Amino acid sequence: MSTNEGYSKSNIFIFDIDDTLVITNAKIIVTDTDSGETLSLSPEDFNSYQANDKHVLDFDEFKSLEILKAGKLIEKYLKVLEVNYKKGNAIGVITARDEQDLIFTWLKEHVGFHVDKKLIFAVNDPIHGFEGNIAAKKKQAFTEFIDMGYINLTFFDDDKENIKIIKKVAKENPDLKIKAVRAKH
Predict the structure, then answer these.
(1) Which end of the chain is more exposed for a tag (fewer CB within 10 A), N or C?
(2) What is d(CA 128, CA 158) in angstroms, rounded to the nearest whole number?
(3) Based on C-alpha coordinates, what's the Rg of the chain?
């Protein structure tokens, strides 16, 4: 395992987790409070899920390190992470998950990269204080990297809405070099 404690303070490569770096069997369980019916959604299905006041969402499977470790790593994007990690570029994470420590542990102990915890944003983790829907929270996290002084930012995510929102941030910050890449597997 390597550490890149002397990573760049201007160049950063930012990765989503689910369906960008790993495909897991974790599901979001949706329960209809009227009928009691449940359905399970993959992260990809959840990207197009329409919120409903009568639905209760259960994300517990995304809190399991074992499910995350059992996932299939997406080599294409892990290679991009590894190459840039070794070059000394900063590595960041913006994920809809809700446990920063879980992501830190998974990256360090299972995948083999010691990513600075302050560069990991699990946007539904209350420690960050982000508000709104997932795309809005991811935008807030991305803006944190800009506020840290990064001027060359590359973002990888499988969800087209998240890519759109980062492209909007790029237009709002023409003095920065911002690239958003839709991850496909």
Answers:
(1) N
(2) 22
(3) 16
